[in-house]
Input
Amino acid sequence: MAEWDIRKLQILRTLRERGTVTATAEALHMTPSAVSQQLTNLSRQLGVPLLEARGRRVRLTDAARLVLAHTEPVFEQLERTEAALAAYSQGEAGEVRVGAFSTSVPALVVPAVRALRDTHPGVTVRIREAEAAEAYDLLAAGEVDLALSLAASAPSAADPRFTRVPLLTDPLDIALPPGHPLATASAPTLTDLAAEPWIFGGSGPWSDITRRACESAGFSPHQGHSASGWTAILAMVGAGMGVALVPRMAAVRRDGVVMRDLGPDGPVRHVTAAVRRGGETGRAVTHVLEALQNAARART
Output
């Protein structure tokens, strides 16, 4: 198989466009003798004559035109590659792997991806759903480039491995059955629900959040039932089997369940984004962070 030299093919292509060796040399900032030498070497490599003399000038042979006809797509692809590399180096292209906890995916990540399609279409976001604490493990291991998590599950802000970016303060609403006395009360509080059976998972971040919120209100919640999915939790609330805290960002609703705002002093959870220290300087990561911040602002 012949050895293909892109630089020599470029010289041959320029000669076809400029018509003379001298004009080709000027266009490529070479000497005429260097142009002639490179084309002679290319002819030797390919095993066919590429030029033929016409008086004091030269013209391309049919073999040369055949070579250029078949290599033109190569030049086109090289142009596309250069453009893609330029976009990549400027942060306008690239893949950003995002580890995110479940409720943040539809609330923040999906709106951010939609916005990026318009503002930075060369940036691709690949999502990996993970528990809030697991997202940081994935980030530390290099398996994702950006983690969306909860501040309560995050390492200390002083952790030298990460740069943290606060995104959102998410209120926690209370889910009540329709006939509950507090379903129509003017200003329900968590303390009013201290004697109720609570519905939350046996372990994991939502269990911790529910217990922490209730303990901050002065009581330890009695776990009447254990469930981790919102469909099961709200079905039991609707059946009058207990009450539950629901993050507003989850935007879960069910007929037969009343969602009540616990007011400005009610419990909240803090949503943060994090990257490995220094990773925030990458333009593609920066674009994703900005899109997430815009999505968070839109929610508040």
Notes: The first strand starts at residue 51 and ends at 54.
